[in-house]
Design a protein that fits this description.
The protein is of the alpha+beta class. It contains 10 helices and 11 strands.
């Protein structure tokens, strides 16, 4: 049975929510594909203030990942204004049986930035299809022949595996930090989950209060804070007030 885009989307959102729980006990997801749902989601988080990270989910159909140019243009524009805010995510598996085999789905969930694909697809093309090559960490386009680099979710965002926590427990027997290390699991170490998931230095800053109380980080000093649903629609560009297709989700982490 085919591994549907919605199935992958639900599993990924649930797994990532569980992984970031040590940093934030209430991560929120909402859809961006339908205009009405998008506005409702933006309005709901404006009063809280925090960070939005966008994920465009794509499943394989006939061993191909299809990228639509119009959607790619919108997401590339968002990334250009807010680096490290927007990602394409797709599974290596094509059927539900293969998807169920790995112990951790993040080892076989692949990611890339919109700009990585924007450079490979003609601006005049309506869409392009790529095959996933897990061995070379690439997306392959047959005609014209092009490749785009991809990374597993583990490499892009950090290792989330609980086994990492056990390794640290064995390294520090009797330590007073034992319980804390067990709690945060895979966070510890340079190749673990990036603490920026719990901070405001990643994604799109959103919230009316953030505009009144600017974020005290040099890297955020010149970044425009989204303070209305209309500003977010403008960020998506022409036609954004309409529906945007399928598989686009926003992860909101309150400040």
């Amino acid at each position: 049975m085919r591994y549907a885009e919605k199935s992958f989307e639900i599993r990924f959102c649930a797994a990532l929510s569980a992984a970031i729980m040590p940093f934030n006990r209430n991560p929120n997801w909402f859809g961006l594909t339908q205009a009405q749902e998008r506005k409702a989601g933006i309005d709901a988080v404006l009063g809280l203030g925090g960070t939005l990270i966008l994920f465009q989910f794509k499943a394989q159909t006939d061993s191909r990942i299809k990228i639509e140019r119009d959607q790619l243009n919108k997401l590339t524009a968002v990334e250009a204004k807010y680096p490290k805010s927007t990602y394409y995510v797709f599974p290596e598996a094509e059927d539900i049986y293969a998807a169920a085999r790995p112990d951790c789905m993040f080892t076989e969930a692949w990611c890339c930035k919109p700009s990585d694909l924007d450079k490979k697809i003609s601006s005049k093309a309506k869409s392009a299809s790529f095959a996933v090559n897990a061995k070379t960490s690439e997306l392959l386009q047959a005609r014209p022949k092009k490749t785009a680099s991809i990374s597993t979710a583990c490499k892009k965002f950090g290792c989330f595996c609980p086994s990492t926590a056990y390794e640290h427990v064995e390294e520090i027997p009797g330590s007073r930090g034992l319980f804390f290390r067990l709690l945060v699991g895979s966070w510890v170490g340079h190749d673990r989950i990036d603490a920026s998931f719990a901070a405001r230095g990643i994604g799109i800053p959103i919230g009316k209060d953030l505009a009144r109380h600017p974020i005290d980080h040099d890297e955020d000093a010149d970044r425009n804070i989204i303070t209305s649903a209309e500003m977010f629609e403008d960020l998506l560009g022409d036609g954004a007030y309409q529906n945007l297709g399928s598989g686009l989700r926003a992860l909101f982490i309150a400040q």
